[in-house]
Amino acid sequence: MPFANPESLRHELANALPERRFTVRFWDGATLPATDGNGEGPTFVVRSPAAIAHLARAPGELGLSRAYVTGELEVDDLDKVVEMMDSFHRPRTDRAERARLAIAAIRACGLTRPPRVPTAELRPHGRRHSPERDKQAVRHHYDVSNDFFKLFLDESMTYSCAIFSRGASTLEEAQRAKLDLVCSKLTLKQGERVLDVGCGWGSFVLHAAREYGVSAVGITLSDPQARLARERVAQAGLSDRIEIRVADYRELAGERYDAIASIGMVEHVGSSQIDVYALQLANLLGSGGRLLNHGIARLRHGLPEQAGAFTQRYVFPDGVPLQLSRVLLGLERAGFVTEHVEGFAQDYYDTLSEWIRRLDANSEQARRLVGDERLRVWRLYLRGARNIFKIGFVSIYQTRAKLG
Question: What pTM does this model have?
Fold first, then answer.
């Protein structure tokens, strides 16, 4: 590889990034040091020219994501990287500087063809938030491996914000507190019929049926989730009162429920479908029917609705946390009266911290189950998610509403 020498690239990077809180170490052992002098920033290890080739092919976040996911770009401390990105602002560069940087990157690659796109990457096709495309996106996230999720979730397999602020000291206690809080806010009574939109592995329907005596239907778009949820229902002896379906919320028709729980699902709906979502839930409830909508909401205005390339391609394709005001507007347009809203940002921060701890402790088993690429995605995703709660970019709200 006659051009696989990163010297010119180091020079151009030093000019393009005159203030650096991070160190870059290249495959030839040479280093582009941090400029802040305290040595506390992260170190990026460029393991081969393929990492540069990813950036040359897709400049910006997508190229960085591909280099990281494939392992061609290593970082010594993910927590430091996530923290640094809060305050890092890439300097403006003119066209000539960008051209020099691109030429230096190409020369440093020494590759005759572009590197492969990671297998963990998804680019959904079809109309955004159509039932078909939503199914692709949801399955990309959830059909990883049931056993993988067991490595970091609690014993109930609840994949949403736990409630520590009511006195829980463990993740298991905090998830039970959350499930019970949803049931109590919905004032569930024995014999009522309840729908869980986005039921996951069945934790809510199991809790509601077992503790409150209701009959429940849970829907998910993930076949592996549904299979495990049905197994858990059968093991609990509740098959006569709980039904698990693989279905889109828009497919339900001609049914009537006393209450609906939607826990961690509204983030997948999108602004183009939020009114459809709210009206569909209203049509499934009779007069006085109750809804508990639990979901992440954006707090900052004036920013792009879609998340960055890493989240869109590797984590939650098409996932869009809307502003709380937009969700409430959709519910009001559908005939709901909002009765109570409660935020749980710190609780989700604490939940994510516990998930991170558990996944890190089981990283070798996780690697055997899902491979290096997926593990890299999830270790970064969980930390990034925790960070956006820390900096106040998002929060999470439970909204209780009643159909007028």
Answer: 0.92
